[in-house]
Design goal:
Radius of gyration: 17 Å
Helix content: 55-70%
Structural class: mainly alpha
Number of domains: 1
Oligomer: single chain
Length: about 160
Amino acid sequence: MNDEVIREQLVVVLSGAQAHISLDSALKGLPREHRGRRRGPHSIWEILEHMRLAQEDIIRYTFDPTWKSPEWPDGYWPKRPAPTDAEWNTSLKAFRKDLDELVAFVRDPKTDLTARFPHGEGRTYLRQVLLVADHNAYHLGQLVQVKKQLAAAKKGNKKR
């Protein structure tokens, strides 16, 4: 398999195509009032913001040797289950911007994905890309499940 094929397959996994769902698809049709409602341990907002914070941390750690990761676990989760509209919009914009940055890095033919980055304790760029893809896919599945549970609860309330 050539380098270009590998890069395009990584972009597919990162962008939520084929077997994975994209963030935009997962959030499509989500009522505003459902952003902060919990069905299980986390609200959709909490999942989204956790994804953003973790993705940002992985990317910044990879490219910036001076980056300081947040405290685990509190630094990776929002403080409240519901966002303001501004927090929601800021989080979405930042998540997309960081993901776009990572996709551009993957697509760059000058990028040696198998190289170990200098401060990465032996980690490769490929490992970091796969970590972002895996983490996002896992939590997007959770997000979709919470969204379905909220929709089912809403339907159940209308039948009464």
